[in-house]
Amino acid sequence: MKEAALFAIGDELLAGIGREGNCSWLAGKLSDIGWQVATIQVLPDEIDFIVSSVGAWLGKVDLIVLSGGLGPTHDDVTREAVSRLLGRPLVLREDLYASILARYAGPIKEAVERSKHKQALIPEGAEGIYNPLGSALAFKVNLMDTEIFVLPGVPREFKAIAEERVLPALDKGGKVREVIRVVGWPESVLKDKLKGLLEEFKEVKLSILPSPNLIKLSLWGTPGDVYNAANYVRNLLSEDILPQGASSLAEAVLLEAEKKQAPVALAESCTGGLLGASLTQIPGASKVFLGGVVCYSNESKIRILKVPEKVIRDHGAVSPECAEAMALGAKELLGSDFALSVTGIAGPDGGTEEKPVGTVCFAISSPKGLETFQRQFFGDRSNIRDWAVAFGLEKLWRAIKGGCEGGAR
Q1: Prior bond to 348 cis, omega within 30?
Q2: Gap between the Cα atoms of 381 and 263, Å rounded
Q3: CA-based nearest residue to 119, from 142, 138, 99
Q4: Which pLDDT score is estimated for 191?
């Protein structure tokens, strides 16, 4: 199996001012094409540290990728570190930099041109790599049978160059990965359900990656084995697998709603707009998502969603009865085919013995009528709200599909 070592360089990452994402993203891409990532390290902007850390992996892995430290400032020292590691001087590649300068005009071009005396430097004998989105040359070089790519740390520049130059050049190693997304199953129960898979497909590596109400099953192995194992899972959990093209519950809801030409609306209380945000972050959501209403107070539920005062007085704002009235109100207000409502106690205060923190009620109004659900979620306020969003989206997806319950409840 091919192996890689990934390094993110920058004092700001170690200080917590910035967050490392480039190497984590690339690790996922490498894993998808059958590579093993041996290490991901975050290094300071110190030449000696970079040289010793990267040098320790030369000849031990097939690929090294460095992210960051190619800018024009005094603390951008990655090219100098690689120059020392190679034992070769830096050379100015004005010929390669000309294509970058050609993208700019006016004062910006003048500023970029002034930076060329650093950003156009690459080690002697290295292959320069055009940066389509930024002003620093990337480069690659081979040392001790290890291919080394040195890329800028700006995320969009890093990803563009990695996708254009790094990933296409790699030997895929004859292995593939397929990810299947399963909704509605607790991790421990799903693990037991998949015992037969592990027994029948011993050569396939299975990883179970849980998140709120959604579990990613990662299958890795030879193409034939992975294909057969994936079909096994799809047959076993046919009603609980997100459709092709959906990497999240929100995408699954929108795909199903568009397929059925069924407009959707939301009424939110404890989630405070998180449900709507999960849908609208997806391009094209407006084809089926009509809108959402955030009614946090009892007064707004009564005035905007027309929840009867008697419902709140007799049952409380956190109740299946209130959730039903909210869903009906949203459907009527926005003219949708389907409406999902959610109302609950996210905490840390507000709970009672009868309705503790984490109590959340849902309702779906659909052409078939009304469905209500009540669940108890655990954790802090953020965790409870995340689970409420994920559970609500699951139920909405199933309702649009045709009312299939599925899952392990």
Answers
A1: yes
A2: 30
A3: 138
A4: 94
Q: Which residues of the chain have a pLDDT value below 50?
A: none
Which residues lie across from 369 on neighbouring strands? 366
d(CA 246, CA 235): 18
CA 8 to chain centre: 19
**Considering only CA atoms, which of 306, 179, 307 is closest in space to residue 246?**
179
Residues 234-250: pLDDT tens digits?
999 999 999 988 999 99
Q: Is 96 left (phi over 0), alpha (psi -120 to 50) or beta?
A: alpha
| Structure tokens, 141 | 């070089």
Buried b (16+ CB within 10 A) or exposed e, 113-139: bebbebbbbbbeebebbebeebbbbbb
State residue 34's pLDDT score: 80
Alpha-carbon torsion 251, 402, 373, 300, what sign? positive
Structure tokens at 217: 């099953």
Within 10 angstroms of residue 195's Cβ, the number of other Cβ atoms is 9
Query: Residue 351: helix, strand or coil by DSSP?
Result: coil
DSSP, residue by residue, 301-336: HHHHS---HHHHHHH-SSSHHHHHHHHHHHHHHHT-
Q: Specify the pTM.
A: 0.75
Amino acid letter for position 224: G
CA distance 75 to 305: 57
Burial pattern 369-382, b for ≥16 Cβ within 10 A else e, equals: ebbbbebebeeeee
For the record, the structure tokens of 71 come out as: 């800018």
Angle, helix 381-401 to helix 249-260, in steps of 10 degrees:
20
